Each structure stands twice: as C-alpha cells, then as structure tokens.
Amino acid sequence: MRSSWSEPFLWIHLAGLAVVPLFLGLCWVFLAVGDPQLPVWVEFLLVAGIGIAPILWMQLTRPFYIFSILVLAIKPSHLTSDQQRLLSLFKTPIHQWLASVGAILMLLVLWQIYQVAPLATIVGFPLTSRFLGLFLASLAFLASNLFLQVPLSVLLVLLTNETKLAATEPFPIVKIFQDFTVPGLQVNRILPIADKKLAVVNNDTPQITPKQG
C-alpha cells in the first residue's frame, strides 16, 4: 500500500466529490427562479465567473491546504515530513493543468444546467427574485467547484507512486502560508489518528533496561 493512502486528510477531502451533485442540483433549482431579466450570455457568464474563477485562481496560485477540516487547520509547524512531501505534490504543474481541465468541465456542465433550468421550476417556491436566484445559484456553483477541484488534486496525489513520493522534497514550513490557502483556525491537531499511531509505535518499541551495576 502506498504511504499516501494512510493519510486520513486525503480521503476526507476526496469524499467531498459526493456533495458535488447536491450543489449542482441547488444551482439548477436557483437558476429556475423568476423570469430572465438579462441576456442569456450575461446570466451565464455571471454565474460561471463567480462559481469558477475564485476556485480556479486558488488552485493555480495558492492551492487549498489539505490538512484542514471546515474551520480548523493543523499548524504547519506540526506537520510531519511525509505530510510536507504531500504538500509539495500539490504545487506541481500537472495539478495546475488538472485544475484547468476541471474548470472547463464545470463550465460545460453549467451550460447544460442553464439550458434545462425551466424544468426545475417548483410551484409555490418562496423565492421569486431572479437576481437573488442568480446570486444563490452562483454560490451553489462556487461550492460545487470547490468540492470538485480539491478532490481532483487529492486524487492525483493518491495516484502518485511511492518512488516519486520518496524523492519529493518536503515543502518548507516557512512558505506554507505564502503558497497555500490555509482556512480557519490553526490548531495542533484535528484527528486523534496520528496520536494513536504514535502510541502504537511507542508500545511496540522494545524497552531497554539498563544493567544494574
């Protein structure tokens, strides 16, 4: 088994793919609200710009700091050398290429959703403002892009072979805040898994009793 597969943060963020259809569904519903007030291409570019541009820019310039969950992030100083190596993989050109491909894919998906938006009209839906609907659709589409782009980059790391990972230089701790988007509050640890592993290692390590003189 590849060592990267034992990193729980990678699997947690890969699971984010599961909510992409949910947010796309919300985007579809909100796009059906009200009657169009702007030209089709204006509405489409508005939702696409808000939903795609921020996430794509983040992944191209300062990728998402993977050692975080919701509003908590592990302090860079508490990362292991293996975790720093994983961070280095997120800064490779192939990740930028994959982020661009993901953005194009989502643009095509949005166009399909926009075209069939009237089918999602809900009778008696409390929201009637077209502009508010477009705004909420943009936020839902933004969330869908976030939960697609981050797992795509994680998947690429999980597929990295052990030889390449071992040859990767640990990412410098002092540059993490500069080169990654670190969300939320920094803490010493989030998951107890690492502590349990350390405990197992300590228990399995043979104890050497000094000879009595």
Automatic annotation (TrEMBL):
Keyword Nucleotidyltransferase: no
InterPro entries: LCTMP-like (IPR049610)
Keyword field contains Plastid: no
Key words, A-Z: Membrane, Transmembrane, Transmembrane helix
Membrane-spanning parts: 12-33, 40-58, 94-114, 134-159
Protein name: Low-complexity tail membrane protein
Record organism: Crinalium epipsammum PCC 9333
